[in-house]
Amino acid sequence: MFSKVLVANRGEIAIRVIRALEELGIASVAVYSELDRDALHVQRADEAYLLGGPTAAESYLNVDRILEVIKESGAEAVHPGYGFLAENAAFAKALEDAGVTFIGPPASAIEAMGSKTSAREIMKAAGVPIVPGTTEPVPDVETARKIIDAEIGYPVAVKAAGGGGGKGFRVALTADELQEAFEGASREGEKFFSDPTVYLERYLPNPRHVEVQVLADTHGNVIHLGERDCSIQRRHQKVIEESPAPPWVVDEEMRARIGQIGVDAAKAVDYVGAGTVEGLLSSETGEYFFLEMNTRVQVEHCVTEMTTGVDIVREGIIAAAGGELSLKQEDVELRGHAIECRINAENAAANFAPAPGKIGKYKEPAGPFVRVDSGVGENGEVSPMYDPMVSKLIVWDVDREKATRRMLRALNEYEIEGLTTLIPFHKALLQTEEWAKGDTCHALLEDKEWLKSTAEVVEVVESDEDEAEKITQDYLVEVGGRRFDVKVVGPPPAGGVAIAAGNGAGGAKKPKRERKSGGGGGGGDTLPSPLQGTVFKVNVEAGATVEEGQIIAIIEAMKMENEITAHKAGVVAELPIEPGQSVSAGDTIAVIKNAE
Known about the structure:
26% helix; globular; Rossmann fold; Dna Ligase, domain 1; D-amino Acid Aminotransferase, Chain A, domain 1; alpha+beta; single chain
């Protein structure tokens, strides 16, 4: 077994790996960027080393510096977590050449599965069903048109060959949308994976995203731990996962078939460690197709740990050290139901716009069968430089209905002051009929009006120059031994600070304020930026006539491209932005005057 392991990651997954190392009696080495000097994973590890500047390229993707730290620290192995270098075959090979163990599959398996076109070819040869489409990269839009017309038809998915995590995935519902989808997928492939090549797949309308967890060691043992249903997604990125899938979606026969597909896929590339075979389950035909293989531990591995009792991270470390898996396939038993909600710093009411910022008071939920994997704490910060995840909230209970109730209870207990998160969204979604029926909820997540309804309720108080400012304050009072919630509307107290009642979780919080302004839809002329980020593209010119809802610009933040649309119809009178420019939340994107 290893004596010291370097964790080449940050946030909650770094802490998750460090915990597993502690239980195995292995010393841990953390690495960090200048922004993460005080991060929890840095504090938790036995040793910590600075990598470089705040950007990922200067730090967590700086392979040369990581190799230096490995030598300085004497680490014998590296755990990459997920993201950053987790699926980088060149990094795994560099470690191998340096005599350092990569806790994951061999570089050959990462390379084979890293290219989605190569993966499709390998799976097809292994008899694993793949979604109909191309197994070779498509060089240009015109070639794509010919292939689609002759073999696939519309709607079609255009996907980056090196893509994953929702990046480099665009859909063309009609021929008119193909060029934009092709260019968008290629652009994201180049940006996130240094590979602009794309391929085509038949787009399955509203399929279920069902994946299977696999484990493999160097002794020829390959098993699966059942399936996860990850169908609740926005922008092709998961927000809620559950294990197992609802019983009316995946029965025992289907589970065995999906599991065997996962095992066959892992064996086809001589896999070692923890990995996930993702697939699409057609809602119409019941067909199951291989989608891709993630050659790393998944964000949502926790729900499988809760239903199987298997420590997936620990098994991966043991396998990398040359040990055998601790269980056989016949030992695997799924019990009860687990749900995971990703607590991201995003504003669902604003179409999931990233919402980085500093955290004030912070209190995690607890109680029976409640687990929180987090990477931040009180007075911490979610930086726009990295992923928007604050934590993962996972619960278990004997069935799906009871697990849902437990999750709602836990969400109500969660306190995160000063930061907009997906907690209100999760609470709203889990109480819908669609969730209860096990629907993919695709229509809800595409419904901007429904998303707006998930916003936290904020009291709006009218004010003018002749009237003193008023705020709404919530108080908790006790009369005759009984507690009452009281709402008071009036001027702010001296000093502008008030202590108000909690939100039902027992904690105090500041009073909510909001002034009415003219910036609402169809109201004022100014279109403010809803988030902090970098202007990626400006879609209009000053003087142009625009319609309400038309895309004005695209802002990149937290690894996502966010479309900023016109809040009203009119003429673009001012356009004080340009590509590459940094903007903060509230900065003016455009001034749109009513057409004369």
